[in-house]
Design brief:
Blueprint (H helix, E strand, L loop, with lengths): L1 E3 L28 E5 L1 E3 L5 E3 L3 E6 L7 E8 L2 E8 L2 E8 L4 E4 L1 E3 L2 E2 L1 E3 L4 H4 L9 E5 L2 E6 L2 E10 L2 E6 L17 E3 L5 E6 L12 E5 L14 E2 L4 E4 L2 E5 L3 E2 L11 E3 L25 E6 L2 E11 L2 E8 L15 E3 L11 E5 L2 E6 L2 E4 L22 E4 L8 E6 L3 E5 L3 E5 L13 E6 L9 E3 L2 E5 L6 E7 L4 E6 L12 E7 L5 E6 L4 E7 L4 E7 L6 E9 L6 E11 L2 E9 L16 E14 L9 E6 L2 E7 L5 E14 L3 E5 L16 E13 L3 E3 L8 E2 L16 E8 L11 E4 L6 E11 L1
């Protein structure tokens, strides 16, 4: 028999796939877990028990909703509840120090009407259909079935939802058929008439471009030419109209607004003389009023028939498209409409607002997020709008956009990097490129960014990948982040958000409602998956993260579906922070859908209607209390307490991989082993049980109460080493397990077994 004393001192690899059960020589094997629930692997190595989810309120009508973050500043952030045709707001009340529904007056939630139905919020595969990005007070909302809208923060307690009105484009390909279109006037409200059926109902709200059919009919401006008031001339690609009679000067008109003279000197006036009438001065200079760049555009307000539509002129139309005798074949619809589809995603990148849909991506004019003009007064400049087609061997639609070193675009069949063609100049219409990065294919889930890496989900939903720019290879590389835990994402990921503080965790929702965490710190080479079981029969449907009001962490919010009293209910809850040194022991919060009572000592705790009929865990003045059942919205304690935490139990469990410490003739795997003693190193832990954590196997309670602790008071949280006799005889597995069922803090630092192998 061989004796060994291995040490489990690093747990940040998370739960490992059963496929790795035989790879005892793999460097991350001893750091992994065969079972992990409600523990968070930290960068430093220990497992920290996750805190509980605190109950905030019910969704409107208990209906399914989508959570969206709105971060005005680090100290003022909101979580938005998008439901069927409405949006509500949750935030932190600086007076009461409580998170709850934003209200316009007591009991009246702030609520806006939206065009998004329940079917609009999610795709059939459970992924979110509504996409968003934010700039200061403005949240831009993209949806393939609706025009883009902007949620605007008016004050800290009021919001408005506006229609996003793009200027100048973007435009579809210019018409190349014989179909002509003319307008009834140059400005204001006009009627558009087409020679064949081109208008459909989906064009309402869309832009339409009209260009002069033949600019050659307007003479070019030349020096020294006689001009009559009302004459039109082309100069610098623009159309100008003379406001006076005279002779052109030497300064070519190039202005784009108002009127200016073109220079030159006037012939002096001649006074009256015998037989000759007086003559006024004849100006050589002509005053030219800018009229148009040879094109203009409208927004369609109504479709009257297939050949006729009403429209509002946005940019003055040239006179050469007004009237039936000036019908032009040079026209184009805007890229976005109910007929052609609206943008399906949105992002900010390099001072531009970007939209994407189908196989195209559009960038706004630099610094002007509403303007998508491809040229200014007929000239293409570096800051104008950009249109990019994502070209690959497959015709796959865009799934997401993410800003990184480049603008990363994921389609159902490939991933692209959009950026500058030449690094010495900013991205622009003539300095842009889209490079094929990879061909894994993406699922319609907004990715998350961590430092220099972007994490996205592959098309099947079963794999999460990291993509990052490799300067040495001057290109992007990609890595499978689920290769060590492929079983964790088995039903497919549907949502994903990032919480950078304090543990750099990516939180995911699985298709079956399981909440997953992924601790991700590339600087320390830490990557570990950790599933989380929500208390009761909780199913997570939507998540979002915002900065916590206290400024000490990123805060995870969730919509949890539960069955209470036979009825399906949906609750909005947020993840509390784990207990920290300096906190009162009574403030440990390790229950789900929980609430806190704080006040005069009492035995009756009320206000628990949302958990009616449920068995709940209780922490009473810092000490675990026997579970009780909520009846009539109340529970009764065995004795009065002034600080009480109440909610659904959410036990935390850890089980190691099979121990490997070597045997007398090689490895210990497959041989009979016995752990006879264990030293457990803990940090700020209130209790737990230890053993193999297998069905039917014995688990013993860890006795942490010191003899010096006064009776009638909770035992202090334990930090240090505890040596125990292991409750298990000989077997061939030698698992190390630990579980915490009471609502108390727990941090697992190390396990130091003494064992023998036959």
């Amino acid at each position: 028999m061989s004796r060994a004393s291995p040490m489990l001192e690093n747990f940040n690899t998370g739960e490992l796939s059963p496929m790795l059960a035989g790879r005892v020589g793999f460097e991350k094997y001893p750091n992994g877990a065969s079972l992990l629930r409600n523990f968070i692997p930290t960068t430093q190595g220990p497992h920290v028990r996750r805190a509980g989810f605190r109950y905030v309120g019910s969704t409107k009508g208990y209906s399914k909703v989508l959570l969206v973050p709105f971060e005005y500043s680090a100290s003022q952030a909101y979580v938005l509840e998008f439901g069927h045709l409405y949006v509500r707001f949750y935030t932190w009340d600086s007076v009461t120090k409580v998170r709850g529904t934003l209200e316009s007056s007591p009991g009246v939630p702030v609520e806006l009407v939206t065009p998004y139905t329940l079917a609009d919020l999610y795709n059939t595969d459970g992924t979110p259909r509504l996409r968003f990005t934010q700039s200061a007070d403005f949240l831009y909302l993209a949806h393939s079935g609706h025009p883009v809208r902007v949620l605007r923060r008016v004050t800290a307690t009021s919001f408005a939802l506006d229609l996003f009105e793009p200027k100048g484009g973007p435009w579809a390909t210019l018409n190349d058929s014989a179909t002509t279109v003319y307008a009834s006037a140059q400005e204001f409200s006009v009627t558009l008439q087409a020679s064949s059926g081109i208008f459909v109902a989906g064009h309402v709200g869309a832009l339409m471009l009209l260009e002069s059919k033949d600019v050659g009919t307007i003479k070019a401006w030349e020096v020294g030419q006689p001009i009559t008031a009302g004459d039109r001339r082309r100069s610098d690609g623009k159309t100008y109209e003379a406001l006076n009679t005279g002779k052109t000067g030497t300064n070519r008109p190039v202005h784009t607004e108002g009127a200016q003279f073109d220079g030159g000197e006037a012939q002096p006036a001649v006074p009256a003389s015998e037989g000759v009438a007086a003559r006024e001065a004849i100006p050589v200079s002509v005053q030219w009023a800018y009229r148009d760049p040879g094109y203009g555009y409208v927004r369609i307000t109504a479709v009257i028939s297939a050949t006729q539509a009403s429209a509002e002129v946005i940019d003055r139309l040239p006179v050469d498209v007004v009237g039936i005798n000036k019908a032009t074949t040079r026209w184009a619809f805007g890229e976005w409409s109910g007929a052609n589809g609206w943008p399906s995603d949105v992002a900010f990148f390099r001072e531009r607002l970007w939209f994407g849909s189908r196989q195209k991506v559009w960038g706004s004019v630099a610094g002007d997020f509403n303007d998508f003009s491809p040229k200014a007064f007929g000239e293409v400049t570096p800051d104008m709008g950009i249109t990019i087609t994502l070209v690959s061997g497959k015709n796959n639609d865009l799934q997401w956009l993410a800003a990184d070193k480049d603008l990363i675009a994921g389609t159902a069949g490939a991933e692209f990097a959009i950026g500058e063609l030449t690094n010495g100049e900013p991205i622009g219409p003539n300095n842009r490129r889209s490079r094929l990065m990879s061909e894994f294919g993406s699922r319609g889930i907004p990715p998350v960014k961590n430092a220099d890496s972007v994490m996205f989900v592959q098309r099947s939903g079963l794999k999460a990948r990291e993509t990052f720019y490799d300067f040495s290879g001057d290109g992007y590389r990609s890595a499978d982040l689920t290769v060590l835990a492929d079983h964790v994402t088995q039903s497919g990921i549907t949502q994903m958000v990032y919480a950078p503080d304090p543990d750099q965790v990516v939180w995911c929702v699985r298709n079956d409602g399981q909440l997953l965490g992924f601790t991700w710190n590339n600087e320390q080479n830490v990557r570990g998956w950790h599933p989380h079981a929500i208390g009761g029969d909780g199913v997570v449907e939507s998540i979002a993260t915002i900065p916590a009001a206290e400024g000490d962490r990123s805060e995870l919010w969730a919509v949890v579906r539960r069955t209470i009293g036979g009825q399906v209910r949906r609750y909005v809850e947020y993840l509390e922070r784990p207990w920290r040194i300096g906190d009162a022991q009574a403030d440990q919060f390790y229950v789900d859908s929980g609430l806190t009572y704080r006040g005069a000592a009492t035995q009756t705790i009320s206000g628990l209607d949302h958990l009616e009929g449920c068995t709940v865990s209780v922490l009473s003045d810092g000490a675990p209390h026997p579970d009780v059942v909520v009846s009539g919205g109340d529970i009764t304690l065995q004795r009065a307490a002034s600080v009480v935490q109440v909610g659904l139990p959410c036990p935390a469990r850890y089980r190691s991989m099979r121990l490997e410490a070597g045997g007398s003739d090689g490895v210990a795997q497959g041989k009979t082993k016995r752990i006879h003693e264990m030293t457990i190193r803990l940090l700020n832990t209130g209790g737990g049980r230890y053993g193999p954590l297998l069905p039917g196997r014995q688990m013993d309670s860890l006795l942490l109460r010191p003899g010096s602790a006064p009776m009638g008071q909770p035992a202090p949280l334990f930090t240090g080493d505890k040596t125990v006799t292991w409750p298990q005889g000989y077997d061939k597995d030698a698992y190390v397990g630990f579980e915490v069922e009471q609502p108390v803090a727990a941090t697992l630092v190390a396990f130091m077994p003494k064992m023998v192998t036959a």
